Here is the input.
Amino acid sequence: MSERNNSERNNLGFIREINGPIVTIDLPGIRSGEQVKIGELGLVGEVISLNGREATVQTYESTDGVRPGEPAEGLGWPLSVELGPGLLGGIFDGIQRPLEKIALQSGDYIRRGLSLPGLDREREWEFEPNPELGPGKQIGPGTVLGTVQETETVLHKILVPPGLEGELTELAPNGDYAIEATIGHLRDKAGHSHRLKLFHRWPVRKPRPYLKRDDGISPLITGQRVIDSFFPQLKGGKGAVPGPFGAGKTVVQQQIARWSNAEIVIYVGCGERGNELVDVLETFPQLEDPYTGRKLMEKTLLVANTSNMPVVAREASIYVGLTMAEYYRDMGYDVVMLADSTSRWAEALREVSGRLGQMPVEEGYPAYLSSRLAAVYERAGRVETYDAGPGSVTLIGAVSPPGGDFSEPVTSHTKDIIETFWALSKELADARHYPSIDWVTSFSAHVHAAAEWWHKEVDRRWEARRTQALALLARDAELSRIVNLVGPEALSDAQRWQLEGASLIKEGVLQQSALDEVDTFCSPQKQFALLDLALSIYDKGMTLIELGVPVSHLQDLPQLAKVRRCKSIYNSDQVSSITDLGREIEDAFEAIRVQYAKQHSDD
Amino acid sequence: MSIKEYRTASEVRGGLILVRDTPGVAFGDRVRISDGRGGTRDGQVIRASNEEVMILVFEGTDDLDLEAVWVRFLDEPVEIALSPEILGREFNGLGEPRDGRPPILSNIRRAVGGSAINPAARSYPREFIQTGISTIDGLNSLVRGQKLPIFSGSGLPHNRLAAQIVRQAKLKDEDSSFSIVFAAMGVSYADAKFFRDEFASSGVLRNVVMFVNLADDPPVERLTLPRTALTVAEYLAYDLDRHVLVVMTDMTYYAEALREVATAKGDVPARKGYPGYLYSDLAEIYERCGRIHERHGSITMMPVVSMPSDDITHPIPDLTGYITEGQIVLSRELHNQGIYPPVHISPSLSRLMKDGIGKDDTREDHPKVAAQLYALYARALETRNLASIIGADELSERDRRYLKFADDFDQRFVGQGESEDRSIEATLNLAWELMSAFPRDSLTRLSETELAKYYQGND
Ligand SMILES: Nc1ncnc2c1ncn2[C@@H]1O[C@H](COP(=O)(O)OP(=O)(O)OP(=O)(O)O)[C@@H](O)[C@H]1O
Ligand SMILES: [Mg+2]
Here is the structure.
């Protein structure tokens, strides 16, 4: 890091005590939140509390081998990230160190005390100045100075950093620049000149400013039926995916990362498995974005603090991810940030608060858990940017409740904050019904808003069909309870057909394997076609049963198997084949009706 | 710092001692403690300031007399010496021989704490390991570099299953076997002997390194034991290019030892008295497994976790499940019916199966066969449940078919001999045989092509 604190205060102190990741240092004058270098190794840490001469520091790296008496140096700035071209396609650790470069320097295992900047200093980018700007123009935070083609898909807008305002005195012509090169000068009101570069720094714990909140509505299409058609998310929304281990939280998040119509994806592996990040790293460069046809990795960046990496950096990783998300939002992009898992983030808070001897309130968590959680989710939203139109950050957090118990503190506080709740069920997962999003306990506050979009873009019957399907599923649960008490014989034919209808919804619509090449992504049109197919068959069958056709007659139709398989036979471009199948079945039913009517008149 | 001895021990509690006025002692360093009666113990610094140092004593603090204690800071981390000679040997948690033979001499010494693998250096595990066990190979396949625990309960045959896997595990169409690192924590003498005899009789002993801490050995030593064992596993895998299978039993005793020390330290408990950092601590162990770019060797891990009171939501299995790449769950109910191995497939899972099976790895129908069997079995269990309420006679013909399937599946697919080594083809063929009891149209998870090729039923 090149900037130095040039104030007169003494930056050097020494270590008093080491208690795991919590280090007490003697360094009068250091500020709360300031970054610190600890010991001979130069481990990075952050001041979290002050007490007279002493400061408590949380270190982002293991403190093994560190001794009392070793030096501690205040760096003069809070934990910040570098924002500029070169972020996309990369993988960073919880404090934005580039892991691929670290691997080159330190091999397979992460060595301590490495301080590599987030962005590449050597690489040059072709900068195209904003033609509307020129010397003499008044510019301010968020003004787009020009653009850089960061990847084939993403045009990176170079923004005036928040906090700077004044007159543009110089703007560089088109050309190749490294990120530290000066691409312009700004003179502020006081007459000071500031250099403008392709990047700037921003403290991660401070939300980036914007013009105002924006109330526009546009659904985040994820290509997952149970989400889009049943519990929809909006761009700029906040959602949670709670569930016990193995229920499918990570798969849900990875599916959203793969198939959602977001322009930028930020995937934060917070205290989870190394192999899950590798999975993304190895597959995304191969996978095609269904919206742009380009490789997914071009719009994705990863933040990784795996479960075996230091706990304290886990707490930071969420903020590091959010700050980068806000930065792309400020360019006018729709960003989705996936945080897997926010429970590990909360546990990192707990760990630090425990070592500080703070009073725990529930299950060892500190009293400020809920307010911190709320503040994190509050950074999601749809905004009007200063100079780049509307942009959004959608934040979707996985929650890992101990023992799958949703009443525990992190799940229950999260539930109060978010708008979309995709509750995963162990029973569904055990039966390999994926995604195991439980239709009874999940909810979305966005159904009406999303309906507007569906009715306009896909089909006017969307909301009615959705409601009908959920009602049928509720009926199914009721009838299953009856069967479990008195046996299936007690059911009428109509009731049996209701069970069959619910099963068509479950198997033909709700179940969607992430591993199925055809079905892994489902366009809104195909989603509605499948839902409509299942329900039309159900409706039609019901009219036949009301005419007296025995239910077994309908259950044996080979077409029903086809309805269940349909999702993996036809892809999103073959919606008309699904409608054709519907017509075929309708004809079969009609034939039964005619035949039945004839039999009856023969009697 | 020169090595100095201190007589300033000021306090002893539950495996910990505090020593005053010991300037400049490094966090995490190794300590030697003389008890003043000619005995020594080993320890590690877990909190350090110039005024006071807290030491974790691996052999425990029973009978330590503060007045008599001498403490020596060795100015080195807790390490183990490594050489190829280590194969075939047996050690305690600190890497000291337990087999009466001399210590390993080598200038390769590594700190047992390890450090985190850079996720950017990992490569995704995808090579199918055939264990010869249908419920694993067919439905919860293991791949090289995976961590797949066995969740068990007291009295269930997890040790026999682990031993069978050690005997049978091989890459498909390949003989090259694994090197085994065996880590026993808090197990009985009989269990340790069972494994030693197993390794000897199957002739793999020359390829095994054993780390043993018995139920009556000091519990604190269990905290370093898996770390020492994994340091050896890393050496075998990445220095000697071997494929290593690490069997750790029983992680529950490890976690209990951790709780004991945490309580003594006064750490804030999260659930059931276990410290909040149990997750991260377990992850430090489990995540040492995997595959690394351009390294020939690999580390596959099979920890045994016994679930206290058979409760899968207990913090130890729960947190393990949140870290590992699936779990194989044993069921007391199946065991009581005499079914071996009593694998309950519903809660069992292998997350890395998807890239290790299918056309180029096992057989093209494998992914869908697994999905279909799971769906049938889930429905069959519901039916069995229903039958237990209303009686099997009340069931429809359709339901009776499911009931029969449940029984056949348990007896024939789950149940197999302790020395029965089924090939993956045999497992899949058996699956088709069982599925063919259903009408073709009800097998909607399978594709038409697969049905045309393998379905053996009448319609
Ligand atoms: N939509 C899906 N399609 C197919 N398989 C799925 C789907 N969702 C989950 N699975 C299966 O379930 C397994 C577990 O899912 P996942 O890893 O997402 O669980 P998780 O809830 O994130 O668990 P943990 O909390 O332990 O991380 C996957 O490896 C996969 O086999
Ligand atoms: Mg997960």
Residues 366-390 of chain B form the longest helix (25 residues).
